Recover the amino acids of this structure.
């Protein structure tokens, strides 16, 4: 477990997963073991969304790749590369064609292993400042590699009627619950505020969109995404790819209100 701290703020990171963000005694992050989701945060890469209706295949310029929901990156483990009192850097390295075990098999998937026809390195770094928690993502790999990126954090809810503010519009928890598994899209948006017992703003660079998901009232996932996957049929998911130009960098800042 990696712990970062400054003043009255504490961050806990377990093998690259943000499992705690406590500010002045208030926990903003969903806790493992609580109803709703068995994880706390994860990355969606190199695809976002389900592919079960596409036989777990995604089209790429190098042919079809075997993927499962939200890609294969989440099935790999991070290595801790650097750590200070207020920062930590984690990375995953992938070699083209390497088979990665699929934890969804056999209960939720027909595919025992996943693979991707490109080399890449994926870096996730945390920086705790007086203003908030910065989470940086850096992707490097083969020139022209197709990819999508989504960040999937879950926030703990403390009140009965939390509200999400996006582009000056209010989104109720009921509205997110009503959409179900598809997740509620918030497109062309780089900043969302969650108003609960305490308030936190999620600011982003590079993603361009969000989607919101939950099936319970004690947590909500507010997810920066480069592409909303339900905008197309699963067989056409490749339409949401962007192409890697040497490196790509993305940023998420969690800003609690004092």
């Amino acid at each position: 477990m990696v712990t970062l701290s400054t003043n009255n703020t504490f961050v806990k990171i377990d093998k690259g997963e943000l499992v705690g963000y406590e500010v002045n005694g208030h926990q903003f992050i969903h806790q493992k073991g609580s109803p709703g989701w068995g994880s706390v945060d994860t990355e969606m890469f190199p695809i976002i969304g389900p592919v079960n209706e596409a036989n777990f295949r995604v089209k790429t310029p190098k042919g079809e790749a075997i993927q499962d929901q939200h890609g294969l990156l989440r099935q790999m483990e991070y290595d801790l590369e650097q750590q200070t009192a207020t920062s930590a850097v984690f990375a995953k390295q992938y070699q083209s064609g390497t088979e990665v075990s699929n934890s969804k098999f056999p209960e939720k998937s027909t595919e025992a292993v996943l693979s991707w026809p490109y080399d890449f390195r994926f870096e996730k770094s945390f920086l705790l400042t007086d203003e908030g928690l910065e989470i940086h993502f850096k992707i490097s790999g083969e020139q022209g590699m197709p990819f999508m990126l989504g960040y999937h954090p879950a926030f703990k809810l403390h009140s009965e009627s939390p509200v999400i503010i996006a582009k000056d519009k209010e989104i109720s928890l009921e509205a997110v619950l009503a959409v179900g598994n598809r997740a509620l899209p918030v497109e062309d948006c780089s900043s969302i505020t969650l108003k609960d017992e305490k308030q936190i703003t999620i600011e982003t660079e590079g993603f361009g969109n969000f989607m919101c998901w939950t099936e319970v009232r004690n947590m909500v996932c507010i997810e920066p995404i480069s592409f909303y996957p339900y905008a197309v049929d699963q067989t056409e998911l490749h339409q949401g790819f962007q192409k890697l130009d040497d490196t790509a960098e993305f940023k998420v800042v969690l800003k609690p209100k004092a």
Observations:
- The chain has one domain: 2-256.
